[in-house]
Amino acid sequence: MALMAHHPAVSLGLSNLARRGQVAAAHWHISRHLPPEGARLTVLAQRAGMSKQAMGTLVRQCEAWGMVQCLPDAHDARARIVCFTPTGQAWLSAYAASVAQAEAELRAAIGDEVATVVALGLEAYSAQA
Predict the structure, then answer these.
(1) How many CB atoms lie within 10 A of CB 66?
(2) What pTM did the predictor assign?
(3) What pLDDT is attached to residue 52?
């Protein structure tokens, strides 16, 4: 994901974490399962199929990196809503651009029909994970 590491809106610190491999696959659970309007930690953990404690650890790491923030829930003073920061939104945009670039390169290298079969296979695989 070299593009993401060079995206101008992504902080240098966050880009360096990605380059050093400190952003693990587990951190993608947040970007994959956190809706744009945010979600409670328990909902985010359920969507990702993780324990609340494990998701809490990921959220704290991403919060320290400036990707997400935890805001008070307007409906329940005891709860907090996890949502993306502007840096987190830039990270998502850079990630989407990286995926689009990888897909375009794959299609150019192996053709549309084979790339579609690969994409369908990956989609079926990820649905099971």
Answers:
(1) 16
(2) 0.67
(3) 94
How far, in Å, CA of 110 to CA of 24, rounded?
Answer: 28
Residue extents of the structural domains in the chain:
2-128
Q: Indicate the angle between helix axes 52-64 and 41-48, nearest 10 degrees.
A: 110
Tens digits of per-residue pLDDT, 21-70? 455 566 677 888 899 899 999 999 999 888 999 999 999 989 988 889 99
pLDDT > 60? residue 6: no
Please answer whether residues 61 and 95 qualify as being in contact, where contact means their C-beta atoms are separated by less than 8 angstroms. Answer: no
Query: Which amino acid makes up residue 113?
Result: E
**Class of the domain covering 2-128:** mainly alpha
In sequence order, what DSSP letters do the residues of 3-57 get, joined into one string?
A: HHHH-TTS-HHHHHHHHTT-S-GGGHHHHHH--TT-EEHHHHHHHHT--HHHHHH
